Every structure is written in structure tokens, then in C-alpha cells.
Amino acid sequence: MKLTWLGHAGFRLEIENAVILIDPWLNGNPSFPEDRRDEAVKGATHILLTHGHGDHSGDALALSRELGTPIAGIFDLISYWEEAEGIEGIGFNKGGTVDLGGARVTMVNATHSSSIPGPDGPIYAGHESGYMIAGEGRVIYVSGDTDIMADMEWMGDLHKPDIGILCAGGHFTMDMSRAAYAAKRYFDFKTVIPCHYKTFDALEQSAQVLIDALPGIRVIEPVIMETIEP
After folding, report:
1. DSSP H or E segment with residue 183
2. pTM, entire model
């Protein structure tokens, strides 16, 4: 298993027989090095979206066409894009599980909002979501954009993820201290990787609060385009 941060909430996940681009916002992402784009997307087999906001879905359509890869995500948005944009999609919903190249991806709840730009303002893009990704004997929880929620209790108990990729920048999502609270109360992570931070001034710039709050857990501050083997 290999995991590479693409900046903000984007990751490249190599697991089983899949190379999954999770929320790959590259064009216009101030933290992503443009000269490493080809390296970031090479060999991708799937695109996986947590919700419709442009800092998560902005490159999805272009990458799907360029790479010939399907986009997986909430049924409402994916089915709309299949009809309006002609892309190949894998639309499913919360509680559903799909097989992406041998990785078992289950959609779970998140609490945020979701829209895409329209000619007269934002267009509803289905519900925001997170994912439990199981493969190679591991389970990764991708929180998507969310705050703490009681659903995390049963999600942790049922899926038992050992790796947590947690939004933790604050302002739009939970911050480092809230992410630490969720990790301690609801999960038994061996590894935690924060994301959705550093990108803008409004977001937290360091994960030190998260690190200090989770002694005994491997908290990795990811470096853009440096591969992690959690």
C-alpha cells in the first residue's frame, strides 16, 4: 500500500490492483507543484470523490476524460455527470460498497455540504460522504469534509479502521483538536494523517496539536508528493 498526498484533501492511493485518486484537486491548488502533475496521476484506475465542492471535485471530469478512468461517488452527482458530461461513473450511496480494483470501498456518513457551480449559483450535488477503504489487510477511514459526529462511534466499531485520513484544518471542517477528540473517542487508529490544512491562511498550518493529543499513535504530517507506506 502506498499513499501520496496531493495537497489539500487530495491523495493518490495505491492499494490491491487499484490506483485511486481521492479528491484530486490539482489545477489551481496553491500547494500542488504543477510540474509533478503527470507523476501524480500516472496509472490511475479510479477517481473517488467525497463531495462536489471545487476544492475536491474540480479536476475530476478533466482527469476522467484524460485518463479514461471512472469517477466513483454519491449517486446524485455521478448520475448527473454521466448524463450531462458523458463520463463513466460508479454511483452509489451511504452503506453501499463497491469494488475498485480489489479494494472494497464503503460509503459512510459525513456532515458538511455539497454543491457544484451552476449558471445561477450553486447546484445541489448530493450528500457529502466519507469512505472506509479495505484492502491488503488494512482499513482506511477517509473522513471527507466533516465535523465530529455520533455516527463515528458505530463506524469505528463496525469497520475498525487502523488508518485515519482526517480533515483537520478548521473553519470549514473540524480542526486539529476536534479531529484528535474524534480519533480518541471513536476509533482505534494506528496511524493518523491530517489533511485539508495549510492550503489557505484560514486553515490551520501545523498538525502539532493533533500530534500532542494522540500519544502512542503514529501521526504523519504528509509532505506533498512524498510517498507514505502506512
Report:
1. helix 176-186
2. 0.97
Is the pLDDT score of 170 beyond 90?
yes
End-to-end alpha carbon distance in the chain: 7
| CATH class held by domain 2-222 | alpha beta
104: Cβ–Cβ under 8 A, 6 or more apart, which residues?
Answer: 97, 98, 133, 134, 135
Domain ranges of the chain: 2-222
Are β-strands 71-74 and 46-48 bridged in parallel, bridged antiparallel, or unpaired? parallel
Q: How far apart are CA 90 and CA 100, in angstroms?
A: 10
Proportion of the chain above pLDDT 90, given as a percent: 99
pLDDT digits (tens, 9 = 90+) for 22-74: 999 999 999 999 999 999 999 999 999 999 999 999 999 999 999 999 999 99
Closest CA to 97 of 56, 51, 129: 129
Burial of 213 (0-12, 13-18, 19+ CB in 10 A): middle
